[in-house]
Amino acid sequence: MCRNWLLAGALWIATAALAQDYPAKPVRIIVPFATGGPADVYARYVGQRLQTALGQAFVVENKPGAGAITGTQEAAQSQPDGYTLLMMSNTHTVNETLIVSRPYQLMRDFAPVAPVNYSELLLVVHPSVPANNVSELLALAQAKAGQLNYASSGNGTPYHMAGELFKAMAGVNVVHVPYKGSSGARTDVLAGHVQMMFDAVTAMAPQARSGKVRALATTGKARSSIMPEVPTVAESGVPGYEAVIWLGLMAPAKTPPAILRKLNAEVAKIVAMPDVQKEWAAQGAVPMSMSVEEFDKYLRADIDKWAQIVRSAGIKAESN
Length: 320
What we know:
Blueprint: H1 2-21, E1 27-31, H2 38-54, E2 58-62, H3 69-76, E3 84-89, H4 90-98, H5 106-109, E4 110-125, H6 134-143, E5 149-152, H7 158-170, E6 175-178, H8 182-191, E7 196-200, H9 201-209, E8 214-218, E9 244-252, H10 257-271, H11 274-283, E10 285-287, H12 292-313
Helix pairs in contact: 1-10, 4-12, 7-12
């Protein structure tokens, strides 16, 4: 027994020392999405702040492809030493159910590090749609079941899942029209070819203010800092509704817990900085802060939430 205690103590001391010296070389952050998107932008933002705080480079590597599978697999196969991180999003929690043939399992092959931020979506309709608020839209959708369409950037994307959650919670039948990206979906909503869309608030707010679309609601728990005059879906007739785009950091499974906690603490400091909060608020991004354990629970709950929607709606992954 005494020997076991000595071994455990020695292991604890070694792990603590490892975390104290970490990082001793550059750290790479794999972003399994294209350059210029939210995951890329905030990976670089947080990476730069981590570099300043910890004295080592945090290098972003974009590895897009296969619905975020390509880069995520590479991260999963990396050494669990704290020198490879994954910038992930709720695309990953949706993929746990949507893409059956994944070469990894998120909660088996990764360890949570920290959440970063979330951004609301904006529910908009074309001005030709006779609905000025969510209640009127629901009444219209019920009266014209299966006749209204909503656009998204593709099956399983946050825009699509926001629509399916809305349909499920509101009990309406609206037809999904998938596109190969948000720009095509947005263009057709602006042109009136499709009646409605859940889109990034930063992308659609200018269109709403110019009258090209009508903003009905935002999708967070609280009103958006960009469009505070617009109510949330939850306060507009669909209680409990929430569908946002969120980002977080994970590391390969078996990364030393002391390193995970050190990174978690540093990210928490970054998102709590007043200048960061002010800059992100202007961009429509809300900082998130949780312990490693809290983020683990959040991830598991999000996987379960979207699994129910994927299964009940019969959503399938894109074939190409």
